[in-house]
Amino acid sequence: MERTNPVVLSCTVSDAASGMLLERMKSSMPSLRYLELVYTDGPCSRGGMEWRRFQEWTERNIDILQSTALVGLSIAYTGNVDSSSGADVRKRRYLSLARTLAKGIKSLRYVSVGAQDPEAAMYAFEGTWYRVASRPADEDATPVLETLSPVEGERVRETLQDTPREA
Predict the structure, then answer these.
(1) What's the CA angle centered on 76, arms 17 and 127, to 5 degrees?
(2) SS (H, E, C) 90-125
(3) How far apart are CA 36 and CA 74, in angstroms?
(4) Sign of the alpha-carbon torsion through 147, 149, 150, 155
(5) Nearest-5° angle of CA 119, CA 163, CA 126?
């Protein structure tokens, strides 16, 4: 990874190597515009974790992503979707973390938060896409996010995956 400079990157980061890997990504990928990242506590991405650990990890590592010029970020964790909490609780959790990410990463225009489906493809996950609708003049204020429909979210994802390298 140190000798590459991708515009788009999809990766799975384990709990054991996450800090070091993200720190190396920061310095070696100045052109990165879209990142799909799945966080896992298992060595084979099939482990499960609870939302709280994922949220804490994300908030702890946001400073590494702040120095990038990301336009889009899709972030998820491996684990079963917590069906005991209900859809409304998941929506609030996803929106809260998306706001934190949009506030911390000033270049971000699109963000997706969710959980990876362990039975589906590597980067298939249940989540929600948001568009940064506006950023207040006060940098300490939280940006306004617009929730995208699943169809719009998939369209955004496809567009971000096709991000061209700037000349």
Answers:
(1) 180
(2) HHHHHHHHHHHHHHHCCCCCEEEEEEECCCCCCCCE
(3) 5
(4) negative
(5) 25
